[in-house]
Amino acid sequence: MLRNVAVIALPEVAVFELGVLCELFGYDRTDDGLPAYDFAVCSADGASVRTHAGFEISVHADLSRTDEADLVAVVPYGTGDESPDVRAALQRAHERGAWVMSVCTGAFALGAAGLLDGRRCTTHWRHTAELSRRFPAARVDPGVLYVQDGKILTSAGTAASVDAGLHLIRQEQGSAVANMIARRMVVPPHRDGGQAQYIEMPVPTVSCETLQPVLNHVLATLDHPHTVDTMAELAHMAPRTFARRFRGETGATPHDWLTNQRLLLARQLLEDSDLGVDSIAERAGFGSAQTLRHHFAQRLSTTPQAYRGTFKSQPV
Length: 316
Description:
Elements: E1 4-8, H1 15-25, E2 38-42, E3 49-50, E4 56-57, E5 71-74, H2 84-95, E6 99-103, H3 107-112, E7 120-121, H4 128-134, E8 139-140, E9 146-149, E10 152-155, H5 160-173, H6 175-185, H7 212-220, H8 228-234, H9 239-250, H10 254-272, H11 277-283, H12 289-300, H13 304-311
């Protein structure tokens, strides 16, 4: 069970990503019925660390604190070689079966410790090429929010750290806990991502005055049949013009967007309801369980039943 969390803060540590881990694991939410974490921020020598914003932070402990943690996480830090002590601490954590997590460019510390060799991993898209160059044995995926490979969890930049942290909590303590923490943080409880086969790029938010009413209508009636022609009619556009405008505003085709939205609803119903697969397929607009299974296999590399088994909310 995930109870003890140690975060390694290296010189020029990024404030936002460190704050995300503090928010996820460093607050006492036992009054809300949530589990408590024994949380500590560590530095290589237990001394204060300068942030990338120029101020210094005091830490709780030195690296010896990582030897008792269920999760050891590394947040982004300044350029330069990682110390042998940091590499050794990460290696020890991995060898004894602890979770090891990196946020954004914290992945470089995991790479220096040899923990990414032969593993799928990611980092901020601006640094994926450099991660591949420095650690050629790593299998770097530049297009995902986060990747879990065994008990190594790596995430992309900034807000992806929220998604990765909630994914880990969901894995260890169930959907109910992850969802409650997400609500406290006012973030989606499960943005596109999860175990490797569930990862995909998030659907871009649309804020176009001409399309938003159409999209709102479609989202409210996903169980109804929708096509490019019917959506174009709602927008009072010719189908080809609508399809062009849609792709320009969302970065996706109408068909891909609609399929993704239906999958998101199906995933929510699999997690939060006891409806059968046939009923979920109808509510999400897929029409049949066979079609729902096809899209799960094609886009998520799993089945609806397997997804429910992994992510359905369990009593705390």
